[in-house]
Design brief:
This protein has 109 residues and is an all-alpha fold. It has 3 helices and no strands. The chain folds into 2 domains: 76 residues; 30 residues, no CATH class. Helix 1 runs antiparallel to helix 2. It binds zinc ion. Zinc ion binds next to loops. Keywords: Metal-binding, Zinc, Zinc-finger.
Length: 109
């Protein structure tokens, strides 16, 4: 597959995931407000706090991935995509298949 197409698809998918997570997050925050839970003493409040931090961590991950995808798309645009940042050698196609945002060859990973 064309790297740009693959990255665009990854980008769309990540954005959808992020939107779903933020929606979840909004729902959890609203639920915790409704239950008027005390996070420290109410067991249900603790569950909500956990879900909230999990969701926040996943959203953070999705955002970071989005940055990587954007950086990879910029490299496609300037022609440096698929070359190792360290040695300038081509990154093996198998590695790019597994990790389309890879910036380095296996030796420099
Ligand atoms: Zn290298």
């Amino acid at each position: 597959m064309d790297p740009r197409e693959r990255l665009e698809a990854d980008r769309a998918e990540t954005q959808a995931r992020l939107a779903a997570l933020l929606e979840d997050h909004a729902g959890v925050v609203a639920a915790s407000r409704d239950s008027n839970a005390d996070d420290e003493h109410d067991p249900e409040g603790q569950t909500i706090a956990f879900e909230r931090s999990q969701t926040a961590a996943l959203a953070h991950q999705a955002r970071r991935h989005l940055h990587e995808v954007d950086a990879a798309l910029a490299r496609v645009a300037d022609g440096s995509y698929g070359r190792c940042e360290v040695c300038g050698e081509p990154v093996p196609p198998g590695r790019l298949d597994a990790r389309p945002t890879a910036r380095t060859c296996i030796a420099h990973a």
